[in-house]
Design brief:
Length: 347
């Protein structure tokens, strides 16, 4: 660091917070990647409106859901290095809280989804302080156990419909202009949540908090020695990674009109989210989003092709094995190696 850079840094640190905040915001807005995220959200929002393409809307909606799941899983898996097979718990519980509030208490959809996100995020924070004491395979196995325990508990919780789940009547869609209009509103809200998840993931990665998570991912004991409060950082990351998946879970199940334990806590979705992150590149914001989008498109092709419809998970497993053996850096790792100058643009 030069003398001029050092003096600028000291001057900025000494400036009042009221002056630092505009500088921070201006610095964020000068990042090309932030505008790339915004452009992605705009394209997702506008593309199906051109020609009122319902089929394209449904395809992009599923892609947006998986981008959100993968991006938030990347905070724990890609940054902190903790393999979380129970990420789908946030999605399912958020769905149940939102649907219950809308169906039983006639809450507005946006408010119900927000409360679902906040409540599940708080629950994840409290629970994370305990489960994140485990490491490696023990943590991964514990998250599978948590998913199955929550699934069994919800299946026996009568206020949430038990094993049969909750079915929404057509009346709940009337405040949004009827079922047809409601589908478009839900789509735009999910796209907004997807865009927010990409902004959040990038903001964390480039922050001091994110630097601490990356240090934990490299060597947790060394990070603790260097001053990182590892229990608090891991629990906070776990909590943050629950917020937007819970909101998207509420919106997604509101769209389908039904939520039941088997679909809400399907462990397959968690496994697929891990495959998506590894396909795109662990620890990469672009990688998580790109991996989720490409995998969802591949999944759609497999499910609609009679010869491969029953081999979707087999192909996912083979894809994961191939990534681990031959491309541990994922698509973005290959891209950075082939075109190093893109590392600054595609974070």
């Amino acid at each position: 660091m030069t003398v001029q850079q050092r003096s600028n840094a000291l001057a900025e640190a000494a400036a009042p917070r009221s002056e630092q905040r505009p500088r921070f915001i201006a610095g964020i807005l000068r990042q090309p990647f932030m505008w790339l995220i915004a452009l992605t959200g705009i394209v997702f929002a506008l593309l199906p409106m051109w020609g009122d393409d319902v089929q394209l809307r449904e395809s992009l909606l599923l892609a947006a859901v998986y981008v959100t799941l993968a991006s938030n899983l990347n905070i724990v898996l890609g940054y902190a290095g903790y393999v979380n097979f129970g990420n789908i718990v946030f999605f399912g519980l958020g769905g149940y809280v939102c649907i219950y509030l809308v169906n039983e208490w006639q809450w507005p959809l946006a408010a119900a989804a927000l409360i679902a996100g906040l409540s599940i995020s708080l629950l994840a924070l409290m629970f994370g302080l305990g489960i994140l004491r485990l490491r490696g395979a023990f943590f991964a196995l514990a998250t599978i156990g948590v998913n199955e325990a929550v699934k069994a508990s919800v299946a026996n919780f009568e206020p949430w419909g038990g094993a049969a789940g909750i079915y929404l009547s057509l009346d709940v869609y009337e405040p949004l202009g009827g079922p047809g209009q409601a589908l478009w509103i839900v789509y735009f809200l999910i796209v907004a949540a997807m865009t927010a998840s990409l902004f959040l993931s990038y903001a964390i990665k480039t922050s001091k908090f994110g630097l601490g998570l990356l240090a934990i991912g490299e060597n947790e004991d060394a990070a603790a020695v260097l001053g990182v409060n590892t229990p608090r950082s891991k629990a906070l990351a776990y909590s943050i990674s629950a917020f937007l998946p819970a909101i998207v879970g509420g919106l997604y199940f509101f769209k389908t009109g039904i939520i039941e334990p088997g679909g809400a806590f399907d462990l397959t979705r968690s496994i697929e989210a891990i495959v998506m992150v590894m396909l795109g590149g662990i620890g990469s914001v672009t990688g998580a989003a790109l991996g989720a989008f490409l995998y969802e498109e591949l999944r759609g092709v497999l499910l609609t092709t009679e010869a491969f419809s029953h081999f979707q998970l087999v192909i996912a497993g083979l894809l994961l094995l191939g990534i681990v053996l031959f491309a541990p850096g994922g698509l973005m790792g290959f891209t950075y190696k082939r075109w190093p100058y893109l590392r600054g643009l595609l974070q």
